[in-house]
């Protein structure tokens, strides 16, 4: 006679009974994470003095240091490129120490988040030159630094032998016959100086919005550069990087028509490097 064992089935039934009687393991309580509520914050103007991860430190003109967060939603753009370069998107890697920026912020309590960061192409070029550390390029950019309000002061590498100011009508960048004659006279004088270079800087008065004035100052500088090279025969390799400065560094107060007229100008600086004899 064959005997069939039932032990496996009994074991399974007992195991099922034990599991049914066991209390359920405690489940972690669900937590709700509340996203910070942002509202429009202050506009910050200054120079990047430090960067770590998703935060940058901006040193304002008054010396105060402000921490600002950046994220994927932060719009980064450069404007004011010389010779009419328009606004262009930039990667976050462009935010390097020493770069002057304007930051539109959103605020949540003490936290500031950058919604937009703007800077000038000319400032980015200078910051890149300083970080790359190329000796010849840095020496050339040192003079342009003075035009950018001494942000990276090394102008003492050059002697300013002469500055010719070319004046313009309101909103215009055309050269008068007098201006043309003065430009060629200036380049002729510079030709007689060993190793002389030209630095051309365009300006406006304070009429009109900032972006318009930036473009206008660049158009004025561009017109002067084109004329001295094409009509006066000045070699392009003997020019430092030209720039437009809008209404910065006024030659006179802008509260009178006479003062405004003095500020609508292009400064043509004749420079000689103090180290030129060693080259």
From TrEMBL:
Signal peptide: 1-20
InterPro entries: Bact_OuterMem_StrucFunc (IPR050330), OMP_bac (IPR006664), OmpA-like (IPR006665), OmpA-like_sf (IPR036737)
Stretches assigned to coiled coil: none
Keyword Membrane part of the UniProt annotation: yes
UniProt keyword list: Cell outer membrane, Membrane, Signal
PROSITE patterns according to UniProt: OMPA_2
The protein's name in its UniProt record: Cell envelope biogenesis protein OmpA
Protein species of origin: Sandarakinorhabdus cyanobacteriorum
């Amino acid at each position: 006679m064959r005997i069939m064992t039932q032990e496996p089935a009994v074991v399974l039934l007992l195991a099922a009974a034990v599991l049914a009687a066991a209390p359920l393991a405690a489940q972690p309580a669900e937590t709700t994470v509340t996203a910070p509520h942002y509202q429009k914050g202050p506009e910050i103007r200054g120079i990047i003095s430090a960067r770590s991860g998703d935060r940058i430190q901006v040193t304002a003109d008054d010396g105060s240091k402000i921490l600002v967060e950046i994220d994927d939603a932060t719009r980064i753009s450069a404007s004011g490129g010389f010779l009419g370069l328009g606004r262009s998107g930039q990667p976050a890697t462009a935010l390097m120490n020493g770069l002057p920026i304007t930051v539109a912020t959103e605020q949540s309590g003490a936290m500031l988040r950058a919604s937009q960061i703007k800077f000038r192409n000319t400032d980015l070029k200078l910051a890149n030159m300083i970080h790359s550390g190329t000796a010849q390029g840095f020496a050339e950019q040192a003079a342009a630094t003075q035009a950018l309000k001494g942000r990276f002061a090394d102008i003492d590498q050059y002697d300013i032998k002469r500055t010719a100011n070319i004046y313009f009508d309101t909103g215009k960048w055309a050269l008068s016959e007098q201006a043309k004659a003065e430009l060629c006279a200036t380049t002729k004088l510079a030709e007689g100086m060993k190793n002389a270079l030209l630095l051309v800087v365009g300006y406006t008065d304070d009429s009109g919005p900032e972006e318009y004035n930036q473009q206008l100052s660049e158009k004025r500088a561009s017109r002067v550069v084109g004329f001295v090279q094409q009509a006066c025969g000045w070699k392009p390799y003997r020019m430092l990087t030209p720039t437009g400065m809008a209404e910065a560094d006024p030659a006179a107060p802008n509260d009178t028509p006479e003062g405004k007229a003095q500020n609508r100008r292009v400064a043509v600086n004749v420079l000689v490097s103090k180290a030129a004899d060693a080259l």
